[in-house]
Each structure stands twice: as C-alpha cells, then as structure tokens.
Amino acid sequence: MGPYDEMRAPLGEVRPHYAALQARLSTLSAAELADRQKTQERFFLLQGITFTVYGAESSTERIIPTDILPRIIPAAEWSRIEAGLTQRLRALNMFLADIYSEQQILMDGVVPRELVMQAPSYRREMQNLYVPHNAYANVCGSDLIRQENGEFAVLEDNLRVPSGVSYMLANREASKRVFPGTFRAAGVRAIDRYPDLLLTTLKSMAADWRPNPQVVVLTPGVYNSAYYEHAYLARLMGVPLVEGRDLVVHDNMVYMRTTTGLRRIDVIYRRVDDDFIDPLTFRRDSSLGAAGLFNAYRAGNVVICNAPGTGVADDKAVYAYVPEIIRYYLGEDAILPNIETYLCREPAQLSHVLANLDKLVVKAVGASGGYGMLVGPHSTKAQRDAFADALRADPSNYIAQPTIQLSTAPCLIDGAVEPRHVDLRPFILSGEKIVVTPGALTRVALKKGSLVVNSSQGGGSKDTWVLSDGKGDRS
Q: What is the pTM of this model?
C-alpha cells in the first residue's frame, strides 16, 4: 500500500472535495498557472514574507517557498481533528498543572517520574506557581499526518514557542487572489479572526486582576528566523513588539520603555525560549530577556505565554505516554492516535531499534526542526554506526518510530501538477477556553521523494481549505 493521496482515490478518480479545484485546473494552461505562481510570489515579496540565506560572500533574501494549490479537508474530517486536538491540549494542560504541583500522575506510575524530572525542558522553578485557568500552553501547534488508511494521527506536539501561523494567514490571503472564484464557491471556513482570537486568549490570562491587560509580543530580535511572524502578529493584534532591552523590572512589576515613559505590561506573548527569558533565573549570558522577569512572574504581576516549562509536555519521550495521559485525566480514549514509538531508555526497545536502524527514524528527544535525527532508509552505514554509538552512550536521549509514508497532495512543480508529501500543523489556543483555528499550515516536502517538510530543511507550505458543513464530505 502506497501513501494516501489527498486528491485522488485508489482507482484514480478525483475525491469529491477536490472536484471543483480539479475542474478549474483543467481550464488553465501551464503558462496561466505559472502566471498565478508569480502573482503569489509578488504578494509574498510585497508583504515582506521572505527569509535570508547567508553565504560566504553575500546574503540573499528569498521568498518563503509556497505552493499555489490548496490542500482541501472536508468538514467531517475536520470535526474529528478539532475534537481530537481539543481533547489532547486539555489533557496536556492538566498534565502540566499536575507535574508542577501534586505530581499525582507520577506517584501513580502512569508516567515514569525520572522521564519528567530528567527532561531538559522540565523547570523546577515552575513548581507550585499559579497559572491562570491552568492554561500552560496558550498556543499549540500539533503536527498531524494522514496514515495510509486515511486516518489522521499526531506526529508530535509543539507547546513551547510554535511558529508558522503567519504563513497560514499569508497563504490564505494569497490563495484568495490566485483562485478567487473557486475559493468563494467552495465554502471555505475563515481563519482571518486568528489574531483577534489570539489576543482574546492572551488577555483572558490576566482578566481576573486587570480589566484591560496590556499585551506585548517579546521577540529575540530582527535576526531571528521567525522575526517576520513576531512582527506580523504584533501588528495584526495591535500590540507592541518588544525586545528584552525594551523591558524594565521594578518592584516585581514589568514595564516597557516608550517615548512617553514607562508603561506597565500584564501579558507577555514570548517568542523566546525558556533559557533566555531571564538571566537571573536561567542562562546568565542571555541578553534576549529581562533581568527579574521570572520573579515578577512568580509574584503574579505578569503572565508569560506560553508558561515556562511547557516543553516537558512535548518532549518526544513523554509523547509516547500521551494516550495514557488522556485516559488518566479525562477517562477517554485518544481521538487522534499516536505514531508507534520506541523508547530507547527501555533495554528491550533499545535492542529492537539497534537491530532495525535501517528501517526506523531516530530522534533526539529535545531536538526540533528536523535536526538531531536519523532517517534510516535514507542513511549511510557510517551514519547508522554513529547513531548506534550515540544510542548506546545515552539511550534516554532518543526515541525511534517507523518510517512514515506521509500523504501526498497536488503541487505545481515547474509548470506541472505533481504529488508531493505533506503534513498538517493546526493551531490551538488555550486560555479561558480552548479554540481550534479552522485552518492549518500544510507543510510540503517540495523535493521529489523527500519526506522532510521542515522549512529549515528545504520544505515549503500551502494554504489549507477546511470546508464548511456538508461541503465535500462524500469521499
């Protein structure tokens, strides 16, 4: 059985929810499609949606790789995704609230204590601190894949500082320009309220003690690869974009410097990793945060979103226990399943992984962005030997999973429509309530045959059309 084809059924017929797009494509020549691709690229350039490639002699600004053909998801499928993601984030927030307080799940042996306590992203400083609504992960971007049987599964959760939502929004704006008639007729659910929903979520974290909380976006600065997103979201929410040097902490209150003096801050949507938030509490050499910021947080005078220490819940080893975590806190089976995962910290599972390195994907538990991993079927013997040594030296730092055949979706490649492998990153907001945005970032492995969708590894993205009720459900 090959990978699931998003557009075509096994016998080659077009799935109903793709019929309108296919009909439109059949009326367009290669030259017309190329012209629409250029229209999208011009839009991205004018919006500043670029990234810089640094070379030995010069640096080049390039368009973020995008594909003009949308990925389409019918309403019934999305309803299941929405329910599964809501369930999952509710349980993970409960897990975080528990491990940073009573630790009942650890005492009951559902999750091994040492797995949590030794996780690189576990923060002892968060122990017994109050987090409004127990919403530790206010913005979550879980990565989903469609399995060969057509069902969606969760590949990993991103609860620290997940990125990509700006590309979801920009892809939508471009998509409306490239296929305006098809878009209007398809009944696509709107995502343009995401900035308002994000701002409402952030404000809800301080609403109990401040009637109109001041929100800011904290960025590492212009040289960060996601800086465009930080500035974009701040502008759409109508809130200040600040760097650590713009912040002042006095008497456990956080202020930002403005041309009219200091202004108090209530909620910080931070796009800075835990280690760099506060040099007095975490890394002493950090200049990206503000000295004393964590003490102000501990005193309850400012809210940091996402809360420090949320990364322990998306640790790749903890991931293997999420179905049990859901069952423990909610008394329910997971709506969206996990991918089979081998914990190398377990001797029997380590032996299996070492014997099958040529068939498995091995990942370091704390790595992200496609780094620190071995894709067995595409690896050399020297690479497998090096990973085998690393596994034996530090087995707790690794997990392994079967090599997954990501589903394929149609993409415009050099003027022709060809299938490419894709995954799906929906965005879930959690504050006073949990909201799943009715859209997602579809990431694309643009190289033929590649399974690597990460933008840092040469991947791209495309718009995701979630159809309204009754649209395209017959598949």
A: 0.92
